[in-house]
Amino acid sequence: MFFTAERIVTHEQMDLSLEIRREVFIEEQGVDPEEEIDDFDNLEKINDTAIHVLVFENNQPIATGRLLLDSSDNEYAHITRVAVLLGYRGKGAGLVVMHWLQDMAKQIGRDGITLAAQTHAIGFYEKLGYVARGEIFLDAKIEHRWMDLVFDN
Ligand SMILES: CC(C)(COP(=O)(O)OP(=O)(O)OC[C@H]1O[C@@H](n2cnc3c(N)ncnc32)[C@H](O)[C@@H]1OP(=O)(O)O)[C@@H](O)C(=O)NCCC(=O)NCCS
Questions:
Q1: Which of 71, 90, 134, 152 is the most buried (most CB within 10 A)?
Q2: For residue 56, how many other CB atoms are within 10 A of its CB?
């Protein structure tokens, strides 16, 4: 499958990303819109604290995710809001999102990634080398576990 990935820098790109997240998280998973969209989605406010990616199959936007650099330099970056449209799953688009965001975190000089994985997706992150830690907790009424990836240098 042929995918392309681009950094989100315009409002048009951000609208396409938010539409994917609306379909996946709000409609499919029942997340409250107030919880789903936050200041890290506001291009005017994020400066260098969030980097978003949009992935296309042919010219169709089908997947997205974001890297948060909200913690200090010596802490791991966070990946959040990884979403692939339902009809496009299982073809590698999720991996494209993750590799793009991980490569960005490496270029910026972070040593790894920490993320809160929905428990159904733990196997997906394990394929990428993430290791789960701690108890299951609820966020947006969905079960999660923390997972970490340490980059090899
Ligand atoms: C989780 C999600 C991003 C995976 O995206 P995807 O495009 O379907 O995943 P890929 O096709 O890139 O899969 C990569 C590998 O992970 C595996 N995988 C994918 N989803 C998995 C899951 N839920 N559990 C276990 N393994 C999974 C695939 O089988 C594939 O393995 P392979 O390389 O051995 O064939 C997608 O299912 C999704 O958007 N879900 C809804 C939103 C969501 O829950 N996001 C995660 C929030 S923490």
A1: 71
A2: 17
